[in-house]
Design brief:
The structure holds two protein chains of two kinds. Chain A has helices at 2-10, 20-25, 45-55, 71-80, 92-106, 108-114, 150-161, 169-176, 188-200, and strands at residues 34-37, 61-65, 84-87, 116-118, 124-127, 132-136, 142-144, 166-167, 207-210, 214-217. By secondary structure, chain A is an alpha+beta fold. In chain A, the strands form three sheets. Chain A has a four-stranded antiparallel β-sheet with strand order 4-5-6-7. In chain A, strands 1-2-3 form a three-stranded parallel β-sheet, with helices on one face. A three-stranded antiparallel β-sheet of chain A has the order 8-10-9. In chain A, a hairpin with a 5-residue loop joins strand 6 (132-136) and strand 7. In chain A, helix 5 (92-106) packs across helix 6 (108-114) and helix 7 (150-161) packs across helix 9 (188-200). Chain B has helices at 11-23, 34-44, 60-69, 87-96, 108-120; strands spanning 2-7, 26-31, 48-52, 78-82, 100-103. In chain B, strands 2-1-3-4-5 form a five-stranded parallel β-sheet, with helices on both faces. Chain B is globular and about 30 Å long. The relative contact order of chain B is 0.15. Classes of the chains: A alpha+beta, B alpha/beta.
């Protein structure tokens, strides 16, 4: 369930299968990425992985495992054909970053699409790689805003990924403040959101302050 | 023999890694920082890159960004190595364009297995790919 929740958040349609035989039988070449739970592998786990990789050589194959300390097993599974491994206790943000990295290598066009977010209102478009935001005018034409800073990009990404959800200042700070080497100034989140709102112009109103709780990104632009 | 570039300002670690990867059959190029690493890549062409995150003059993130922006080099496998294990640091490494992030210290068998997996999954270079 944990993995389903993490992957659904990234936006992928998920197909659940019971074992490697079922995956091989269901034309795995159509799958974008394969995540296999260590628990469904039998005693010949290496052979199963080898066969699975052979049946879908271009799809990144990731092992989900709780055995983070078993380096011999992990090295053997990498040699058998997995491209990476994810641990049960791994943070969702790291899971997402790792999956995106694999997709960027094998499916650069898909990865490019993942780097573009659209607001539910359909009038704000964020291109994360270039840190640029496009706003749709009443005439249907798109115009680009002033470039965002890295933190503004992170904050807007979070709002657009979780529209209609109250996001607390602590969560926003911990998630968006990448550069831990610099000192966190008091009110840094509020200051950046204020600057982000300014750059979004009237559409900045979609970011609403919830006093005592944090911020919410509205699902509509009204 | 597969070429590989090590970029790390820790001379002792750089030498140890050089010995380890040479013994594993790689042709190893070594650089002390991102500036040297970038010069080697420009001169020698695409190869797997193993780089440290924090270095003087040009750090690992900037070198990664430059590689990903270069039409000839953008497909090279990049593995970041760092003592920093915080989630945010790892995530930002991937966001800059690293394919893998390994926390120091690590076991040699894991390093070699992950390098092999990275190189196996890298699409062949396409000289006609538009920049």
């Amino acid at each position: 369930m944990r993995w389903r929740r993490s992957l659904a958040r990234i936006g992928w349609p998920i197909v659940v299968m019971e074992n490697t035989r079922a995956i091989i039988a269901e034309s795995p070449r159509t799958l974008g990425i394969i995540l296999i739970d260590h628990a469904v592998l039998g005693p010949q786990a290496g052979s199963e992985i080898f066969e699975l990789k052979r049946s879908a050589p271009s799809a990144p194959l990731l092992l989900l495992t709780s055995k983070s300390g078993d380096s011999t097993m992990l090295a053997e599974m990498l040699a058998a054909g997995i491209d990476d491994y994810l641990f049960d206790a791994m943070d969702d943000r790291l899971v997402q970053a790792k999956i995106n990295a694999h997709l960027r290598r094998v499916l650069p066009e898909v990865a490019k699409v993942l780097d573009v977010l659209m607001a539910p209102s359909g009038d704000i478009r964020l291109e994360r790689v270039t840190q640029s935001v496009w706003l749709k005018g009443a005439d249907g034409k798109w115009t680009v805003t002033a470039p965002l800073t890295s933190m503004e990009t992170k904050l807007l990404s979070l709002f657009m990924e979780f529209p209609g959800t109250v996001l607390g200042r602590k969560f926003l700070l911990e998630t968006a403040w990448i550069d831990k080497a610099t000192v966190v100034l008091p009110g840094i989140v509020d200051k950046n959101i204020s600057s982000l709102r300014r750059k979004l112009g009237p559409k900045g109103d979609q970011i609403r302050t919830i006093y005592g709780a944090g911020y919410i990104f509205r699902r509509d632009s009204k | 023999v597969k070429p590989i570039l090590i970029v790390d300002d820790d001379a002792i670690f750089n030498d140890l890694l050089n010995l380890t990867l040479s013994a594993a059959g790689y042709k190893v190029f070594s650089a002390q920082d991102g500036v040297e690493g970038w010069e080697i890549l420009r001169k020698e062409g695409p190869m797997t890159v193993v780089l440290d995150l924090h270095m003087p003059r040009m750090d690992g993130k900037e070198l990664t960004r430059r590689i990903r922006a270069d039409a000839r080099l953008r497909q090279v496998p990049i593995m970041m190595l760092s003592v920093q294990s915080e989630v945010e640091t790892q995530v930002s490494g991937y966001e800059y364009g690293a394919d893998d992030y390994l926390i120091k210290p690590f076991e040699v068998k894991i390093l070699l297995a992950r390098l092999s997996a990275l190189e196996r999954g890298t699409p062949p270079p396409s000289p006609n790919r538009p920049g």
